[in-house]
Amino acid sequence: MEMRERQPVRRRTTRRIGRLRLPIAGPYRPWATLYRLPDGRLLWTVRLWDDGRPVRHAYPTRVIRAFARANGLRALAEEVERLVDRAREDGLRSGTEDAPTPADRLREERRVRA
String of b and e for 73-98 (b: at least 16 CB within 10 Å)? Predict the structure, then answer.
């Protein structure tokens, strides 16, 4: 019986990329944390108050971008893009590039047409 050398198993884990504050209302500024999931998708978690206690909610990047755009928060939008770019660079280095979203595909189609 031939013994083969065992190859190390590469674990694919959820990675925390970074976080930023969301200016919701007045002094209420919860943290929004960006994660890259093992399949390459990006997901933001935000702890919002609900019935007197904090509840964790998960949102795709498009929701955080829309919040920044709708409220005219240019600095927030730039920080979101900086973190998303960092996540993509990290995904390329680890070999798990982000799965393209429909918005990514639309942007790419527009870029190709131009």
Answer: eeebbebbeebbeebbeebeeeebeb
